[in-house]
Every structure is written in C-alpha cells, then in structure tokens.
Write a structure and sequence with these properties.
The protein is of the alpha+beta class. It contains 13 helices and 32 strands. Helix 11 packs across helix 13.
C-alpha cells in the first residue's frame, strides 16, 4: 500500500528511509552509484528487484540465500558491497522493525544460482564488523500451502476448483489418497502457487478470512518445503521411490513388477513401508527404465507413483545412526503430520545420503532406515495445559524423544501423550484498588516473565528479537484423532539458528509433542515447547 511505501530516488515520496542523516546520505549515494532503487513496504526494504536494465526472467529457485546475525543498525550501504563480492544482486530484502532498525536478517536473490552457491561458501561466518560474523544459508522459496480440513470424499479436480475460487495464482493441488481407502483423501491437500509472493498473499488472506469449503472450516499454513537436491547428486541416484501402494501389497509383488522389466540381478533391494516403498537398482539406467514404464501402472488396483528418491545430505541435514529398536508400522494408527521423512540410505555414496520419501505420515514408531539420536536423552518435561469443553486438562509428564529418525523440532518426532486430570475453569484473578494502596511507577523490564503474565508467544518473540534470530515462523499441521476430530500442531522455525554452524547450533526447527483442537492453544503449546528446549523460559 502507498501508506507503507517509501522509496529512494522517488521524488513523489520525500519521506526518509533512515532517521540518521549520515545513513540516509549513504543510502542515496549507494543508489546513485549502482542505479538500484530502495523501496520500503510491508515491513521490509527492497533493494533492486529487478536491478537496472534487467530484461531477463526473474531468477528461479536456488538463487536466493538467507543472511542472518546482522547488526541491528546495519543497512544496505554496508551490506551490498559485501554481497556483491559473490555476484550481481537481483534483489535484497532487508527485514525492518517499527523503530527503523533491521530485524537481524535479510534475503538476497542473485541473478544466477552459481552466485548464490558462492555466497553460501564465501560469506558464511564473514566478519562484517569487528566480532560480528554473518550467518548465510540457502533460502527456501516455498510456493506451497498446507490446507487441512478437506472432506475426505473430495477428489483432486474438485479441490483445485474450490481453491481457485478463494485464492488467486493456484497452479496445482497435491492430494494424497488414504492408505486404507484409495477412493478417499487424507483430509488435507498441498496447494501450489505460481510463486512465493502469491502463496504468501493467499496464506494471509485465508488465515484472516477463514473461509469454509463445502461447509468445512479449513486450516491453512505453509507446507513443508520440498527437499531440494543438487542436480549433480540427483544424476547419480539409482533408487526409486514408489508411493500410492495398497496396504496389502507385498514386497514380493513390488519386486516382481520391477524385475520383469530389467535383466536378472538388476534389483538389489526392495523395501515397502505402509503405502510406499523403495527399490534399489544396480545401475541408474535400469532405474530410469522402470520409472518410465511403471509410473502410473496399476498394482492391486492402485496406480503407482514412481520417482527418483531424493537423497538428503546427512552432514548438513542431521546426524543419524541406525535405530536400535524398530516398531512395525502395520499395527499402528499414526498421527499424521505431512512432511518429508528420511526412509533409507545408499551405502554406495562416499558422502552418506539419507533418502527422503514424499510427503507421508510421521508416526510414533520408527520406520525402516530411520534413526534415533544417541546424544539425545529422554528428558521429562511438563506440557502446556489445554482447554477442552471449558475444562483445563493438565497433562502429566511427557518424555521428549527423537523418533522417525528426525531430531526434536522436525515433524514426526511425536511421542505418546500422557493423560491428565480435569480441573475447574481457570479464571483470571482480580483485586480491588483500596484507598490505602500506594501505587509506585514500575519498569516492566525489571519484572520476571511470570509477573508480566506474558504468553509464551510473546516471550519467544522477545527472545528471538534480543538474540537477532529473526521472527519465529509457525507452520500449521493437522492430524485426525481417534474419535475423528481434527487436531492441530504448530511447528516452529527459528531462522537465525539455521545459519549457525552445524556442530554448534541447536536445531532451527521445533515440533511439540502435543496436538489440540484449538489453533490458538496449539500456537501457545508450540511457543512454550521452543522456550523449554532453549532453556530460557525462566531467564
């Protein structure tokens, strides 16, 4: 909007971008030198986008990096010369607060992917000021939204039509059939938009208007970003990922289908888990042959969806070891949280890769090839109370463990939920102002969090601002409870942690072990979970 819009080199809007006159002059000098413009809108400042004399298409995925741990009083005049060491900047988006300081992080889109890769290599831990090191990592250009609350009887085409009615820029919907009944979906869909900005606008609209589809309220948030793998790595993959299988389809049936198309001995291994599986080949050529011929073919009445498995670099994603105990999945009714789960690995690679399956169910059991984390101890912690039917449910102690081969903070690390006892509704305490009371001016900063009565969401935001970690990002997931009621859970991403060194950083992604029926309570549970893991709840 024009009210939120400021621009350097725009004579129609003389409002300065910076309160400091020296910095304002430096910004103008930068724009005069480079020919770029700086525009401020919607809480961020854009440098370029596009750059001057740009006639090509907008750079695609893989061209953007996240830059964190910025000094709060640093601006484009200092940052741009450093970023330009690695290539031509298409657009720099510096996140700003209401006081005119940056929020500790920015996004930089280069004109070429090779330049972004150079920035990842050369600028991470770059000393931009004395004692202040930048944190640089790949930015995920997410174009997908997770939409929960979809009636299970609706088909893909119907969902696509409805989503186009309530949002603009929809290009596709991804719907996964139920493992037990292929005629039904799983109660959620992934909606794909033409670009990240369109997806962000759609998310904002849907979260504010809360529309109903077919009379059902929907839950909307960012989908888990698709796993991106380097092209050179994908060119060596010789494992196929097969999904949309029937529960009763066996590994022997799966192997027979693939073996019929390649020479004897071409298949080294077959593993099926619930409604998906992996087929290992001796050569990539044999894998590609089967992919082309079997994708979409019916097996037990269900069309197989066949693709190359995506390896996730173990050293930069998470450290794994083989699980000591595995729980059969066939006997479980999982709590479904859509996302990517590492499911197998290929020992032939010099660098160990864990192969990620498609968006599937994470469960309380540990699937094949997954791992627990030996350094993670099962520490008992208290869970946040939830309110159901006007009664506050106070759970017992819950044990935090790493499950499904993913550390705490990645979807799927779910545990059993302890029962609790009911109490009467909690009412806020009120006290009368008496004539003999002395009112003393008090600085809120001198009070403990318990005295301020701040919500976990507020406490987490303040902590992240204090530590220059960026704003916490809440991503909504849903699952169907045992009684058919839709349950919600928020996963929290802390952008600043993802830019720190792998060996020293905490996980940038946190997932609580509790689901609930209220979106508001789910968000508080998520924030409280992060505070507990960071051990700052009482700081």
């Amino acid at each position: 909007s024009q009210a939120n819009h400021k621009s350097v080199n725009d004579s129609s809007n003389p409002e300065p971008l910076c309160i400091n006159p020296a910095k304002e002059a430096a910004l103008h000098a930068l724009c005069q030198k480079t020919g770029y413009t700086i525009k401020q809108e919607n809480g961020q400042r854009k440098y370029g986008g596009p750059p001057p004399h740009w006639n090509d298409a907008i750079p695609g995925k893989g061209c953007e990096v996240f830059v964190g741990k910025l000094p709060r009083d640093l601006y484009e005049d200092e940052l741009v010369p450093v970023l330009e060491r690695c290539g031509r900047i298409y657009e720099l988006r510096l996140m700003m607060d209401f006081n005119g300081n940056n929020r500790g992080f920015a996004f930089v889109k280069y004109c070429a992917c090779s330049e972004a890769r150079a920035a990842l290599k050369d600028l991470n831990n770059f000393e931009i000021r004395k004692g202040r090191l930048l944190g640089v990592c790949k930015s995920v250009d997410n174009c997908r939204l997770f939409v929960g609350g979809i009636p299970k009887t609706k088909q893909k085409d119907e969902i696509l039509i409805e989503m186009k009615k309530v949002t603009e820029g929809v290009v596709n919907v991804i719907v996964y059939p139920s493992a037990a009944d292929k005629q039904k979906n799983r109660g959620f869909a992934f909606v794909e938009y033409q670009d990240h900005h369109t997806a962000a606008m759609a998310r904002r609209k849907l979260m504010h208007t809360r529309p109903q589809i077919w009379g059902h309220p929907i839950a909307v948030d960012w989908a888990e970003p698709e796993v991106e793998v380097d092209e050179d790595v994908m060119a060596t993959v010789k494992i196929l990922y097969v999904r949309n299988l029937m529960l009763n389809t066996t590994e022997e049936q799966l192997e027979a289908e693939f073996s019929a198309l390649v020479p004897a001995g071409s298949i080294e291994r077959v593993k099926k888990i619930r409604d998906y599986g992996f087929v290992h080949f001796n050569t990539r050529e044999n894998a590609i042959t089967c992919l082309k011929k079997l994708n979409g073919k019916l097996l037990d009445g269900s069309p197989m969806e066949v693709s190359l498995a995506k390896p996730v670099d173990r050293e930069t994603y998470v450290r794994y070891t083989r699980a000591a105990n595995r729980v059969p999945l066939d006997s479980q009714e999982p709590l479904a949280i859509p996302g990517f789960v590492p499911a197998t690995y290929d020992p032939s690679f010099k660098v160990v890769f864990l192969y990620a399956g498609g968006p599937i169910y994470y469960t309380t059991g540990v699937p094949y090839g997954a791992a627990t984390i030996p350094t993670l101890t099962a520490t008992p912690r208290f869970a946040m109370p939830s309110i159901r039917g006007g009664v506050t449910q106070v759970p017992g102690m819950v044990t935090q463990i790493g499950a499904a081969g993913v550390p705490l903070g990645i979807p799927g690390a779910t545990t059993g939920i302890s029962g609790g006892q009911g109490r009467g509704p909690v009412q806020p305490e009120k006290y009368d102002l008496l004539p003999d009371m002395v009112l003393t001016p008090t600085n809120p900063l001198s009070l403990k969090p318990s005295q301020l009565q701040k919500s976990p969401i507020q406490l987490l935001e303040e902590y992240c601002m204090k530590m220059s970690l960026g704003n916490p990002e809440y991503k909504l997931h849903s699952a169907e409870g045992q009684n058919g009621r839709q349950l919600f859970l928020y996963r929290v991403d802390i952008p600043g942690f993802s830019s720190q060194s792998v060996s020293a950083k905490p996980s940038s992604q946190f997932t609580p072990t509790k689901l609930c029926i209220s979106l508001d309570v789910a968000k508080e549970i998520a924030a409280s979970h992060v505070l507990e893991n960071l051990s700052i709840a009482d700081d």
